[in-house]
Structures are given as structure tokens and as C-alpha cells.
Amino acid sequence: MATTSPGALRRLQDWLPRLVLAPSFALVLVFVYGFIVWTAVLSMSTSRILPVYKWAGFDAYERLFAQPNWWMALKNLAIFGSLYIIVCIALGLFLAILLDQRIRIEGVLRPIYLYPMALSFVVTGTAWKWFLNPGMGFQNTVRGWGWESFTFDWLVRPDMAIYTVAIAGIWQASGFVMAMFLAGLRGIDSEMLKAATVDGASTFTIYRRIVIPLLRPAFLSAVIVLAHMAIKSYDLVIALTGGGPGNATELPSTFMYSYTFTRSQMAVGSASAMIMLMGIAAIMVPYLYSELREEKR
Amino acid sequence: MAFIEIERLERSIGAHNILKGIDVSLDKGGFLVLLGPSGCGKSTLLNAIAGLQPPTAGDIRIDGDSVVGLHPSKRDIAMVFQSYALYPNMTVGQNIGFPLEMAGIPKAQREADIATVARTLQIGHLLDRRPAQLSGGQRQRVAMARALVRKPRLFLFDEPLSNLDAKLRVEVRAEIKRLHQQTGATIIYVTHDQIEAMTLATQIVVMKEGEIQQTGTPAEIYNRPANMFVADFMGSPPMNMLPGQVAEDGAHLIPEAAPDTPLPLPAPLAPGRKVVLGIRPENIGDDPTGAVPLRLDLPVEIVEPTGSDVFLWLRLGSALLTARLPGNAQPPVGAPYPVAFDMTRAVVFDADSRQRIA
């Protein structure tokens, strides 16, 4: 150690954090941002089964938006996404308000509601596939009880199958949304609720005028989390319906995978991936902007 | 019949009695302070009056009518909370107008009432701000405005000054006193601060462990405490307590701490009785007129100048007594100092029951 001068030690201390962080930084740079750039390049090329780097401009995007299948995926995303976000928030808020009434077994109930979030989407999808399968699940059971005409076959009906995806997604995420709202509710000063009671507000008015407005940050977080989960959702659809029947439950993510890797339309698939990225960015950037601005204050 | 009458009020959670039979009455326009250490049940009592926590037994009557079982909003009361409890999502104006809005008063009338009360409390320039943009003192004023605007028949204050710094506390305290004098409102006020109680109240109720220790005017509570708890709780520094035995002549106390220094009692008592003599620091000190008969030279252990007063810690046998001198006094530490004991102001408690007997 005699050769190590104090100056060298200090320089090492300066550089050590950067050295330690460098590998992960390089990996993220290549495998996240590098591949985003690569996808962008591919979407502007004529690639089909394998990447080729022949410039084709926005040709792939034009072909993408000419595909009825892509429009189907967008329409399904609109149905699934809006149902998923709205119902999850409504149900989560309702459960959180019920659970906030100082009930005795809250400690037992809360994890029960949160548990679905611990499952992977594949498990959720498979379980719901069995449950909703008309031949062996819910419909069959009710018929077995003697109600012979009972029909619940949304899973195999092209016009209704997307709603089964929404049901499974909502089942999984509403408990998580409930936890977010419950945390928000617990942060509200109980004296404020007493004050509102003395001021003459009914319970319903207290929630409508005071409590729910105060949960605004929780609403914002819930929308952000749910929206990007909706856009990204892939495994749930694959496990539950496989995109079918036909293309009835096609989502942008399943569209992207099948065009890129199974239908030899890599440029079109890349273009759809870029559109999804833009969709997520359109949600995340304003959110991050507002969050960072709050922090600066 | 008093304006507010509380009769044998009890509240218990499980086997735990928080209020053990409270009797309080207050005339219209009175300022009642519920005083006691934390956990004495004073806030529970206030919440019971407000209707936020139902009592398990007993009755509360306002203006002759029982309000037990009535919803808080139907009791015609207003409450000011320790945390101010302003609604952060509303402006100051909306906060003040909220109880009026809930009562279904039309907007024009509401705005006129808000403007009037804002003028009284000098917060007219804040009406468009949000609570988060206000200082603690301003928030407290808004909370009071929200209570005042309804012109209720009874105001409840739950430790409204506890979250303010010392200087603001004095200011807002004076403000509350002024409001009470101007409006003649009936107020019930909860605090653990004896100075607040002394300065504001027309009537003080001292509580401990769910029981009333004493009810009386500030002067009665301070000068004639019913028991040793009240005597010790009121006053800062607290009353000097000297346990001992009544002498053979029945007119003197033999203090345990200094058996060779008998002290005259304020009233004759049975010889040999075990008692505790209480004397406030301001009744031990200089006596320029020479009217006080009992004088002792006691060694000074500690000198505490506070600016307005100087407090002396004097040694009497094995006990330490606190004496109060004027702020300009400069007693020497360690040397004996001549002090006069005004025994006519002293009180005597029974050593066992701890109740005042003289």
C-alpha cells in the first residue's frame, strides 16, 4: 500500500461509484434505448422475416394503418383499457372506502384483496380460461345445479370475448388500486371529517366534497399505473384467449408479436411497437413532468 | 335552569371508563374551560357534547332540550379543532361558507355572511387562498371564522392553540377573549394549559382520570384548590407542599422536613393530625411593609431570573421551597436570605384524603 498516494486514493473514491454503475448503465443503454432505436430503424425499413436495412420511409406505418387487424387491436385496446381503468378505480375506491370503516378483520381482508396482484398474468389468464370455459367452468356448474338454460359463453363469442379479458384484468388489479386508495384515505386528518360532520355534511357529501377531492394524487397514480399496464398487457390475453376467437381479442401487443415474429412482417410489427411506445410516452411524460415539477417546489 | 346542563355523563369503552359521571352546568354567555392532563377525558367530554362520540349514560341538555342521540349538525353548535381541520381542496372563502352551504343558505346571503365574519377576524384579503398557503395563525383564524359564521348557540374549542408558537398563542388567546366579550357567545373550551384556562375562563372544570376534581371561577380554583391535584396542577412554578403533623397547640405545623421550625397554620386543626401545608411561591418573598408576622432566614440554593420575576429555591431542612421576588432582586446564592411567609394565603390538605381542610 506504500505506493498508493492519498491523491490516487481520492481519485479512486471519485471513480468507484461510476465504475460500479458502469456495467448496468451500459446494459440499459444497449438493451433498452439501443433496441428502441433499432426498432425505430426497422420500422422504417423493408424488413420481413429478418432485419434488412433498406430505407422504406413510412411505408410500414402506412401498411400498418391499412390493416383491419390493427384497427381491431386499437378498438379492443380502447374497450379493454377504458373498462380496465374505470372499473378498477371505481371498484378499488369502493373497496377502500368500505375497508376504511375501522372494521375488525381488516388485517385479514386487505391481503386477500391484494393477493391477485401477486399472481402472474399467465396464471390469472389460465385460471379465468378454465372458469369461463362454457364446457367445464361457471356455465357448466350452474347448469349442473339444475338451471339448464343458463348461458355464460362470452369467452367463445367474438363480440364478447374482449370483455372477459377486461374481467380477468380487473379482478387482478382492483385490489392493488384499493391499496393505493386506502393509503390515501388513511392520510386524511380525522379531525377534518369530524369538522365536516359538525358543519352538517352527510357521509355521502363528506366523501364527494372532501375525501375524494383529497385523493386526487392517488387517482393520478392509479390511472398512470393502469393505463400503461393496459397498453402493455400481452400475457393475460395470450393465456386467456390467445387473441381469439379469430382476432376478437387482438391487442396492439399481441399484434406486434405475431407480425414481427410469426407472420414475417417485421417492419409492420416494429411500426406497431413504435406506436405503442408513443402511446405510453403520451401518458408517462406529462406525469413525470408534473411529478418532477412538484419535487422542485 | 342553566343554558348547558350535563348530568351524570358516562362513557366507557369495554371495561375502561373514560368519563365517570360528569356533572357540569354553564349559563348563557359563559366561558367554560375543561382543564386537565392528557387522558383525563376532557376531549371525550367535548366530543360527547358535539355528538361525535355518544355517551354510554347520562344526559346533555342545551337550552332545556336533551341533545343526546341528535346528529352533530342538528345541535346548532360549531367546533374549532386543534389541527384547524380546514378543507385543503377548498379556498378560505369556501371553507368558511361550507357550513352555510350545508345548511342550504343561498349563495348571495352566504357571501355576505362570509364577508362580515372575515372582516371581524381580519382575513378578508385571504378569502381566495388555499389553506396550504396560510400561516398557522391565519389558519386558526379561518377555523374560527368557519365556526363564527353559523352564529351557533354554542362554540366548542378543542385545544385550538396547541399547534401555535408561543408568541402567536398569546395573540390568538387575546383574540378569543375579545370575541367572547364582543359576541357574548357561550363557549366550552378544552385545554391542558392552565394559563389559557386562567386567562379565558369564567368557569373552570379541572378533570383527572374521567372525574371532575373541582369546578369554580379561576380565582377559586387558584386560591382555594379543592385538593392537592388541583393545587399542584394550577400555577407555575407549582405550589410548595410541606407534609407534617399538627402541633400540640393545634395552631402550628411541625414539618417533616424541618421539625424544629414550626409554621403557623391558617386555621386551627386537631393536634397530631397528618396534613400537608400548601403555599404558593408568590406568598413567600420580600415584605417591604412589614405586615407579615412570619419571617425566616433560609439559605438560597438556586436563583432563577425570568425577567419579570426572580424565583428562589430555598432550603428548609430537607425540603426545597420556591419563593418569588420582583424581577430586579439580586439575592446571593449560598447565603441565607430573609423571606416573609404570608400564612393567611396558605392552604392545608389532609395527608390521606388529599382534600383541602383549611
Task: Describe the 3D structure.
The complex is a heterodimer of chains A (297) and B (358). By secondary structure, chain A is mostly helical. Chain A has one domain: MetI-like fold. Chain A is built from 13 helices and no strands. Chain A has helices at 6-43, 59-65, 68-99, 106-114, 121-132, 138-144, 161-186, 190-198, 203-214, 216-232, 235-240, 252-262, 266-296. Chain A is globular. The model of chain A has no long low-confidence stretch (mean pLDDT 85). Helices cover 23% and strands 33% of the residues of chain B. Chain B has helices at residues 42-50, 92-102, 107-120, 136-148, 166-183, 194-200, 218-223, 228-233, and strands spanning 4-13, 16-26, 31-35, 57-62, 65-66, 77-80, 154-158, 187-191, 203-208, 211-216, 240-246, 252-255, 263-264, 274-279, 284-285, 294-305, 309-316, 319-326, 336-341, 347-350. Chain B has a 6-stranded mixed sheet with strand order 6-7-8-3-9-10, sandwiched between helices. Chain B has a 5-stranded antiparallel sheet with strand order 13-12-11-14-20. A 5-stranded antiparallel sheet of chain B has the order 15-19-16-17-18, with no helix packed on it. Chain A binds chain B through residues 189, 191-192, 194-201, 205, 209-210, 213-214, 216, and chain B through 47, 50-52, 72-73, 77-79, 81-83, 85-89, 98-99, 102-103, 146, 158.
